[in-house]
Each structure stands twice: as C-alpha cells, then as structure tokens.
C-alpha cells in the first residue's frame, strides 16, 4: 500500500477519536479546575485567545483544585463512591453466580443446539436497555408481580419493600449485564477439552473436585473478562440506580448527572467524572491489555 | 466440550432463561391489559396501541431516533471498518497503542463520562446542540463497537487471499473492494446493526448532547417512566421488542444459511 493511502487510512479514524474521545477529556479536566459562575457558560475562567500570553497566564493562575477539595469535604460524594463500589462488586459477583451455570449448561448441550441458545442469551441485549429496566419496575414494586405472587402463595403477608433499595439495583444490573458475563465464559468453556475431565474422573477425582480443579481454572480468562465487562460500566451506571434504586441509592453516575442537570455545577460534575475515571483507569487498562493479548494469540 | 449433560445443567438453563425472558413476557402480556393499572389484569384490549398512534410527541421522537441511528450506524460502520483494518492489517505505526486504547476504552467507559465530556467539547467549540451532535456522539461509540466486530473477522480470514490478488495485478484498492470487503461484509453488517441498536437504545449520551427539537425516543420514554408505569409504555416496548426479535431472528437465519452454503462449497 502506498504511503499516502496508508497514512490517510490511519488518520481518518485516528483524528476522529482524538477529537471526539480524547480532546473532550482534556476539556473536562480543565473545567474541573475552574470555579462555578452565574454566566454562560456557567464557569470561570474562560480562555480568550485574543488576550495572548498574558491572558493565558491569568487563565492558568485562576485554575484551582477547589472542586476536588469540595468532593472530599462533603460526605455525600464519599458515600456515593463507596456505595457505587459496593453495588458494582456485589452485582458483579451475583452476575457471575447466575451466568456461570448458564454458560456451562449451554457449553454442555449438543453442538447443534448451542447457536440457538446463545442467540437467546444475546436477544434481550438487542432490546432497549431502558425497557428492560422498566420491566423490573412492574415486577419489584410493592403492588408488583413478585409481591402479588408471594402473597398469593402465602409466603409473605405484607408486601416486601424491594424497589427503591439496593437489592432492586443488584437485580437490575445482573439482568442488564448478564450477556456480557455469559458470552466470554461460554467462549472459554466451549474450547475446553472434555477428555481432561474424563481423565480426572478416571484417575479418581470426584465430579465436584474435577469442577474446582479443572473446569474453573480453565474458564478463568472468560470469568475475568466477564467481570471487567460488568464491573466497569456498573460503577458509573445511571439509569438502573435512578429508576430502581430510588432517591436513597446514591451512585457516582447519578451524582454526576444531578450535579450537572439539577445543580448546574459544571466544575463539580467534571471533578466527579475525573475521579470516577481515575478509579476506572486501572481496570480499563488491564482489560485492554487482556483483549490485545488475546488478539495477538489469535493471529 | 463433550461431557454429560446433567440435571444440574438443565436446571441452570431453565432458571437462566426464565430469568431473562419472564420480565419481557410479563411486559408484553400486560401491554394488552384493559386496565390503566399495569399490574392488575382487567381483560384483553389493544386500546393502548391506538393511543400510542395518536401520541404525536412519541412519534416525532421515534422519527428523530431512527434518523440519528441510521446516520450514526452508517458512519460507524465506515469508520469502524477503517479502524479495524488499521488495527489488524497495518502492523506497527507511531501511536498504535493510543489508537487501540481509544478503540477499546469506549466499550466499557461509563455513559455519563462520555456524555458529559462530549457536551463540554461541543460547548467549547461553539457547536449548536441538536440532532447532528447526537449523531457525532453516537458515531464515536458505535465505530468502536463496529471496529471490534470487524477486526475479529479480519483476524480470522486468510491474508494470503488478499496477497494473491495483489500478486495477480490488482491495485490495493481493487483488492480491498473485490476480495477483502466481500469476505468481511457480514461483519460490517453486524457492526452496523450493533451501532444502530446502541444508538436507538442510548439515553444518557443523548440526554447530554441533544438540543432543542431533537428529543429522542429513549429520552421521551425515560421522562414517561419517571412519572410512573403506564400501559402505553408497555405497548411501545412491545412494538420495539417485536421489531428487534424479528430482525435478530431473520439475521441469524440468514447467517446460518450463508454458513451452510459456504460449508457445502468448501
């Protein structure tokens, strides 16, 4: 391929991502260092290139860490962060508990049935996320299907309060992110050599210990990938805690949203975004390394 | 893997699939409920579908969403295919790891961060917010998904086909359009579909980047849900679910026919 075409091919997607993915973060960092103001846009300082070097100097000296200091002083933000971490960790574990047996079940059916079952796992993912969360409101609320059913069977006499609690958020996250956990686990289980298990059992291993000592370790890459795919977006989730968690459930994504839309405090909203991002950088980079290694291996 | 299919596996499948489908099933059934109370059955009725058809604001939002999704999916497929080609076929170049980082990180980046940062970019550049800014935002995410789908296909197909075409005197551009593109076409279509549904589905990024007169369907549904459950939303959900189900099943059948035919020839 000639040099010009090669450069052009790289440049178009590269520049697009630089402009629409990387550059915005620099702006977010800048605004997180600014102060709120009753103006349009609602923050100072605003950089004016017409003022030249002196303008740039004034501009830089007006930036400070006030928004970040504010985040540490108000317990609301620290609680929101801890709550996000707790909810994301619990939901990721629950998701793994539901997804693993499902992935294993699919991997053990006949090869002919597997594509259909896999499609059935993916199908709900293609339908609107918002609709899937909405469906759970009808199930979990106090006069919802679950409470009706439990009262009808006589298990409970008073409706359970599930909606507007963290439990509803766990259910919502597990439900919405299930395919992201099932697919990578299935991919590793499907490649697994069944004769390893047979050998273990022939050599006197019980089925249970064969599972713990062979199936699980071999499925580890899929489990790790699935946990990344669920944990990272769950940390910043907005829709699920907002619709199912009620006002009592604070999460980072919700805090960011309300700082921006309700309080119109752009510097604090930006600071929340940066803190969330800094926290997620480690898992995101680890995840990316893993994908790259897998791609290298496939080549 | 060939091991015995146990009762444990059967239970896991039954439990897993009921968990996945029961909520959707209840939603669909109760869209035909005559009562305004969503969870109390009061006889069969299709009146909520009728009311939906007269809800002009909802129809407008649906039309905006379709246009945004179509435009951004098309741009995503184009840019994503280029990006995949760069990732898989062009070996080392300066800034490659930054490039692959920018492709992979939007896949897991929380929506609120992407939405906020893009809005602040548009404001800094003085771009008026509206349908076009939503298209730009959705393309940025969609192209990354499309790139991942297309690159997985590019990795698995034999590079020597392309090299043969070049040896036989094809220009690189010809080789791409007459050899590579037909082979990766299914994955480009899959990438387009993925970008299209992501765009149709997105609430958070659209809420940040939209402007007056460009309310998308998820934004509309979200504000309706916040007011409480209503059978009209059930009806709308059922229509959307039906479209998706028919689309995905048709695509799967088509794909399996293509694979079967490919198998016969090979």
Overall, the morphology of chain A is globular
% residues in beta strands of chain B: under 5%
What is the terminal separation of chain A in angstroms?
21 Å
* CATH topology category name of the largest domain in chain B: MetI-like fold
Which descriptors would you attach to this protein?
heterodimer; A: 299 residues; mainly alpha; MetI-like fold; two-stranded antiparallel sheet; 2 strands; 1% strand; globular; B: 266 residues; 11 helices; 0% strand
Please give a structural write-up.
The complex is a heterodimer of chains A (299) and B (266). Chain A is mostly helical and 299 residues long. Chain A contains 13 helices and two strands, in the order H-E-E-H-H-H-H-H-H-H-H-H-H-H-H. Chain A has a single domain (74-298), classed as MetI-like (MetI-like fold), CATH 1.10.3720. In chain A, helix 3 packs across helix 13, helix 9 (194-202) packs antiparallel against helix 10 (207-235) and helix 12 (252-261) packs across helix 13. The longest helix of chain A is centred in the N-terminal third of the chain and has 34 residues, at 75-108. Chain B has 266 residues and is mainly α. Chain B folds into two domains: 23-54 and 229-266; 56-217, MetI-like (MetI-like fold, Orthogonal Bundle). Chain B has helices spanning 7-29, 47-53, 56-89, 96-108, 111-125, 131-156, 159-167, 172-201, 204-209, 217-226, 231-265. At the A-B interface, helix 1, helix 4, helix 5, helix 6 and helix 8 of A face helix 1, helix 3, helix 4, helix 5 and helix 6 of B.
Concise structural overview:
By secondary structure, chain A is an all-alpha fold. Chain A has 13 helices and two strands.
